[in-house]
Design the sequence.
């Protein structure tokens, strides 16, 4: 993962911060998703549909971008 | 009940064949990269970054059971399974994503490649050898998984059971042998994408089938209102059992192998935390799909028949093939990872470390590939010929590995006064105690063997560690 502005690999510290934020989001969603069955099932359905549809392909595109940037090519030269 | 074979058409075959061609191609493309040495083959030279780690995390943590098993629980218990299994599973995995994963990558020495290596580092060589049992037992689970995939393809497309197992099994052997973890990382990513898109498609199909979420809720209420209660159809014992099952991931060799394959600890933290979000969303989608099947086909002779009939009814041609591919993808990713891990452990941790210490790295690599082929053939044959016996063996060994190794692994990471004698004593005592509690005493007082072994093993572990602790031998993961 790189910083889009500088194209410099993201620092460990920044990754840990993002990880912590994502952990908080996980906890919040763990509370909201079960409650969604009671208030706002329609919104819950669309949330589940959209996230499921988009998440996998987004990861795959991100992987292709990393391949293009040569993230994995380093290995061949190194070894 | 619908006629599956009538609905299964050319578009579905095209999707399924495209999937198989795609994953096999990865094996050929990644072959060179994975053949440098054992580290490149087993942990992809520790080069995996966030997008790929999300895929491998998904494959390790959300397998075919999430698609079919969770669907079945949704059908029988309703949305309470979200509160009692999906959500606790999410919370219990958080420590792995936030601390244990990054520690595995950043704090442990580079020579640690396998789970037995890690136990050996925490304690000593005998403890590491005993830990070799853990991942090898997973092969039994793979047989059950391959049968599940074959059974579904047989049900929906009419393909003979033996043919489905041979085709799927041989495909796994080829791409795992050729490309190791490099191949698995990419195939897992493809498989993860197929799984999530299929889940989205099924949910959309369910939504349209009931003319919206309101129609869905009304139909479930008319069928069994308890299924819409967050605590409906649950007992304390079953709820507790679901929570315990989430602990299995702490002794899962796949998790540690994938942590070790990451580029940095920070990548693990981001990827696995993000994976928990999608895991929650994906698992909930599967519960809803199962719940929908119980309403659409309440009179189905088996859950499987009703579930797949629902999938086929709510999805258009092509998307049905994608959903079947998703199940096969989930099976293939788990089986290939277990084959890789078991092959590596048998050759490196058992044959090399115990019998032939001077075995070269290239020989370990070649030997691992040969063993992967043999394991693959065992899985194919075992699935077809001995599936009942294997299912029973897995039920025993699967529980055993979680019961015995959970405390030593957690202690290895976090207990500052751990000692080699403490770890080894706890493992040996845990094995003996589990056998006595499970088989001789038949799990008395209603206490599950895993819980009893955790308590007993934990007491033994801490007493032995305190008794043998010497400050000069202190090992802290800084």
Sequence:
């Amino acid at each position: 993962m790189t910083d889009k502005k500088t194209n410099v690999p993201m620092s460990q510290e920044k990754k840990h911060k993002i990880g912590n934020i994502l952990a908080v989001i996980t906890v919040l969603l763990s509370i909201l998703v079960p409650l969604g069955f009671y208030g706002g099932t329609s919104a819950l359905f669309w949330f589940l549909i959209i996230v499921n549809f988009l998440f996998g392909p987004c990861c795959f595109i991100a992987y292709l971008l990393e391949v293009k940037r040569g993230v994995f090519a380093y290995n061949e030269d190194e070894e | 009940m619908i006629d599956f074979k009538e609905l299964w058409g050319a578009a579905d075959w095209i999707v399924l064949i495209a999937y198989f061609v795609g994953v096999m191609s990865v094996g050929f493309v990644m072959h060179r990269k994975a053949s440098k040495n054992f580290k490149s083959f087993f942990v992809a030279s520790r080069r995996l970054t966030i997008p790929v780690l999300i895929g491998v995390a998904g494959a390790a943590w959300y397998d075919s059971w999430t698609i079919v098993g969770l669907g079945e629980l949704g059908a029988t218990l309703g949305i309470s399974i979200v509160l009692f299994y999906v959500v606790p599973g999410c919370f219990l995995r958080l420590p792995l994503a936030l601390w244990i994963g990054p520690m595995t990558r950043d704090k442990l020495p580079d020579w640690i490649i396998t789970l037995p290596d890690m136990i050996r580092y925490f304690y000593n060589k005998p403890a590491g050898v005993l830990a070799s049992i853990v991942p090898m037992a997973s092969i039994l689970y793979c047989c059950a998984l391959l049968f599940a995939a074959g059974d579904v393809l047989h049900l929906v497309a009419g393909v003979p059971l033996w043919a489905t197992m041979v085709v799927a099994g041989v495909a796994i052997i080829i791409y795992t042998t050729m490309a190791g973890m490099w191949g698995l990382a990419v195939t897992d990513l493809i498989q993860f994408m197929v799984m999530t898109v299929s889940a989205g498609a099924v949910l959309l199909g369910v939504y349209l089938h009931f003319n919206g979420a309101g129609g869905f809720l009304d139909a479930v209420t008319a069928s069994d209102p308890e299924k819409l209660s967050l605590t409906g159809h649950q007992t304390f014992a079953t709820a507790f059992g679901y929570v315990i099952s989430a602990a299995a991931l702490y002794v899962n060799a796949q998790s540690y192998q994938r942590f070790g394959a990451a580029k940095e600890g920070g990548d693990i933290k981001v990827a696995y935390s993000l994976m928990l979000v999608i895991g929650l969303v994906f698992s909930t989608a599967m519960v809803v799909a199962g719940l929908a099947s119980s309403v659409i086909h309440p009179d189905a002779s088996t859950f499987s028949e009703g579930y797949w009939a629902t999938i086929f009814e709510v999805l258009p041609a092509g998307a049905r093939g994608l959903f079947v591919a998703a199940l096969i993808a989930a099976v293939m990713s788990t089986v290939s990872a277990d084959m890789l891990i078991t092959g590596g452990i048998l050759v490196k941790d058992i044959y090399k470390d115990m019998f032939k210490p001077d075995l070269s790295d290239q020989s370990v690599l070649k030997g691992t590939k040969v063993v992967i082929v043999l394991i693959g053939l065992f899985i194919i044959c075992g699935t077809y010929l001995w599936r009942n016996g294997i299912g029973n063996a897995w039920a025993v060994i699967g529980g055993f590995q979680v019961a015995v190794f959970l405390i030593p692994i957690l202690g290895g990471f976090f207990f500052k006064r751990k000692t080699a004698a403490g770890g080894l004593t706890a493992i040996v005592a845990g094995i003996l105690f589990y056998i006595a509690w499970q088989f001789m005493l038949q799990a008395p007082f209603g206490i599950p063997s895993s819980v009893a072994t955790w308590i007993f093993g934990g007491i033994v572990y801490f007493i032995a560690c305190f008794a043998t602790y010497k400050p000069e031998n202190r090992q802290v993961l800084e």
Notes: The mean pLDDT of chain B is 87.
